[in-house]
Give the backbone structure.
Amino acid sequence: MQLRPILTALRRHKVATTLIVLQVALTLAVASNTLLIVAARVVHLSRPTGTDEPHLFVIRNGWTMGQDATQVDANIRADLQTLRQVPGVRDAFSSQGFPLGGYNVNIVTHLKLDPDQKTAAQLVTFFASDEHAIDTLGISLVAGRNFHPDEVTATGPSDKMDPPSIIVTRSLADKLFPDGSALGKTVYLPNGPAAIIGIVGSLQGPLLHGGPLDHYTVLVPMRLADPAGVNYMVRTDPTNMQPVIAAALKALQASAGTRIIAAQSGVVTMAQVREHAYADDHSVATLMSIVCGLLLSATAGGIVGLSSFWVSQRRRQIGIRRSLGATTGDILRYFHTENFLIVSGGVALGALLAFYANISLMELFELPRMPLYAPLLGAVVLWLLGQLAVLGPARSAAKVPPVVVIRTE
């Protein structure tokens, strides 16, 4: 098929053609960046915590006023012993926080490789832990050993954190010691040195948007005896945790010590923690997906409307071509080719706008650089959408009998 007649016809409808080209370009630019945001959100909310999430729940336990750190520590030890004896409970430990949230004290500290280090210290998040923490969380040691019971100390909220040993995640070990020699090395916390005695595979910290800090996590051998409250992390054997949760709460209420566990938010499963933590990401991804769908629908509607208008305007031209021997396939190819040229013009302009918008968004938000395949994928979708949108008007034009068209014009 010759392109010259098509280009000539398009020049006669410059305004309409330009509007569709701009609409396609805007759709590609917005849709490419929107889908990039959606992909980033989906990746973010799909990140594993490294724990045995289906079998973990958290009890947010508060204490009544008037208890000092010594009394609180005794209550915590008694509670943990009680929880570990509940049928269906595999293990439990206490901490100031848990993955994806739930902390009531500062959970960020820093490490140095040398006490006189002049460069910036490495920021990390930490969990108060004991010898039961690794099994409770469902994480695994890839090197070294677990804490011994005598290494775990009771620490009040105003006491300095000065552990002789710590366990770190593999990502943090590789960051601190790229040569792979982290095990057995000494690092320096704000209050003194600590030896790395173990390395675990992966463990997300309490921060939700910690960036690189997400898996730069440290386990510190201490029981936080905070009169304000503590979190009990409990791992169960059965996946159906509700009976175990009910039994655990009943056992705690029957044990010694005055406690406060909120009826609504006092117990949460890790599945609920994940759902709550990533609710905003899920909402943004859903909203952006709807925006993309509306843009594509509007573009398809514009192409259908323009094509239908052109068919009505070209009835005489179509009838003459049919009377000169043009087949149904010739008419279909004409309109499909015309649409392909229009969409291609919009795609070329839209790709430039997409990359320009991506550069601007990278400066304002934490977005990755747009890969080349993103606008290419968008272009393919728009080409297919354009061909489908023009199919109806083109088939309508091709079905009109040539003699009737000539006589009615």
